[in-house]
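INTERNAL TRANSFER SHEET
From: sequence group
To: structure group
Subject: histidine kinase

Please process the attached sequence and return the structure record in the designated field. Keep the field labels unchanged so the import script can parse them.
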Amino acid sequence: MARGKLRIHLGAAPGVGKTYAMLSEAHRRVGRGTDCVVGFVEHHGRPRTEVMLHGLEQVPRRELEYRGGVFPEMDLDAVLARRPEVALVDELAHTNVPGSRNAKRWQDVEELLAAGIDVVSTVNIQHLESLGDVVESITGVRQQETVPDEVVRRADQVELVDMTPEALRRRMAHGNVYQPDKVDAALSNYFRPGNLTALRELALLWVADRVDAYLTQYRSEHRVSRIWGSRERIVVGLTGGPEGRTLIRRGARLAEKGAGGEVLAVYIARSDGLTSASPKELALQRTLVEDLGGTFHHVVGDDIPAALLAFARGVNATQIVLGSSRRKAWQYVFGPGVGATVARESGPDLDVHIVTHGEVAKGRGLPVARGGRLGRSRRAWGWIAGVLGPPLLAALLSAVDLGLANDMLLFLALTVAAALLGGLLPALASAAVGSLLLNYFYTPPLHRWTIADPKNIVAIVIFVAVGVAVASVVDLAARRTHQAARLRAESEILSFLAGNVLRGETGLEELLERVRETFGMESAALLERASDVEPWTCAGRVGRGRPVERPDEADVDMPVGDHMALALTGRVLPAEDRRVLAAFAAQAAVVLDRRRLQEEADRARTLAEGNRIRTALLAAVSHDLRTPLAGIKAAVTSLRSEDVEWSEEDRAELLEGIEEGADRLDHLVGNLLDMSRLQTGTVTPLIREIDLDEVVPMALGGVPEGSACLDVPETLPMVAVDPGLLERAVANLVENAVKYSPSGAPVLVAASALADRVEVRVVDRGPGVPDEAKDRIFEPFQRHGDAPRGAGVGLGLAVARGFAEAMGGTLNAEDTPGGGLTMVLSLRAAASRPEPYPTAEPERQAS
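Return from structure group:
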């Protein structure tokens, strides 16, 4: 069944016309031929609203008594039974009178929607749960009736019913909202112009946010990359430097100038983790932007201008705020800078503001390779080759004259070796020392720091350039190798994580423990809250670190949606680690949702099983138990009748019928009690060694004579069973086989030994059971095929299997060769028992 659609008329305050608009919509739908009824509409004595009810079908209300009064409520069952296409339900946040099915009216609406009924409802902005504190600070009144924001956000349509404060106050003064005796008090208290203006602003902003969410979804679905300047969005680019706080405040001032302006601060980290940002400074800037009503974002990208522009266009920003460069003049040889590049490539749809600050031109360190890329020992050998290698080579060449060209090639080879070992800096040192030694010892004039031949100058320059080039290539290769190794490790972690989560092999605590171990943290916790104003709660936590109650108290926090965050304590993670952490956080949310869905499914399965058993039990009580009772009552009534003179044969027949009915009742009730004991786990078998020929013949006493034959050899080993449970199990099997065996074909009960087991076979020549139904016949309240209702309640085989398993045995169904069904009861032989049986005799559960 398709879920119904919800349409909500949202207003800023009572009296703006929500109910009137809802009834107008109902008349339009009825005019189009839609089946529309009034589930509950309160007109509050307003004549114009009451008139709108005329011509609409109204479902009679349900009246409930509470504290000496009678209160009308919507009759949910009557609306569900009526099943209209559309139901009008006024006052979505209303609290139902105690004794109703649901505590809140919005819960009644959820049931209507689940039944496929469209609902049109109304609600005021002050009743939204997340705005309770804001409304109280404006009006001084705490709203007791609230509705969760998510209920309203899930609505298919939200229509704003707007009215200016002046117009609403005029309506009240004319008596169109409240009774005349309440107008003056309302106008001077809750309905003051300032209150109404503030509430109206809340309603407009809430609807605007919802429209913005629709717009974002539409742009994403239709892949719209061009910016639509529907509202001012200011993106503030942060570098992690101290100037960030100045840029955030400037962006906030720009946002205040435009209606509904929004500030988004973004920090872009390189994917290789090279950054000069201070984690402490970034944390302070994040707190500042959130205090000013903005949001903080962390983006990874090697090309900072391209990443910044992509982020701005992705959020439909209209302006970008950047700080003037902190680089010194000589550092511009490396490029024009982020600000100039962003301004050049922003296009006509993005305005770029370059803001001056106190750190302009004070310099910023260029990112250098971290020492961990090549290893300490390798860098040490590189410095040895770059600094000590050239003097040693010069000492060796002083004894041999190979010519300047060969000498330069040897020094160049030493520089290349230093670059291969230690990277850029050892290579530069080797090139500098080597060029000085070449100039002093091997370039005419010798032993002087001058060069006579210009060709030798070119040779030395080429020598230095080749050394630097090789060193740069080695350094770049080391970085790429490090990135490749890291990406391979990340892909292995994510692949393992995704596989475990998809297979359901990882619980929430196991996943959090893996997060803690992967990143070397002290503790990991998954925090969540119901709404923005609700406190944070811990859904799961591992580790011994300090407990955190809010994400901002942790050393690292990774948001997951709007109301969930993964919080870690121990150290501050570098930017490159946050990518994998984001995947862990998303998977943690998936695991938590899956666990809750599994719990709900288990509860639903338990309820469904209970409902199925209760339904079958009621059917058994209504027919299978009433039938023998009716027969007994009829026989007793006949015997007590004074109008008829019964013969001895008739009296004996009636008494026999009473006895058969009582035996049948005893059997049915016994099976019901046995099944209840099995399901509650209260069957405690008293196991002892016994011969089958002492128990099995007693199980045949309940079937007609000649309907079963017995074949139990005396040479069989003893079995370890509870005699009472075994007798009841075999009796149920025999009775079931007799019911389905044709006349003249007795049931065979045979026993045989097989290894360390003893099997009891109950063989009939009835119609048999197909393979796909052999397991189903052992379920409670199951009758195979077209078995008549009088054949029992379907518990005999279920009880028999339950008793067999309680004694450590098994019960299965097999086909009888030549047609029919064979029940195989396998029991443990006494000699094979694994441990001594209890000597204390517990209370007998069934016998």
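Handover comment: The chain has 24 helices and 24 strands. The longest helix spans residues 454-503.
Transfer complete.
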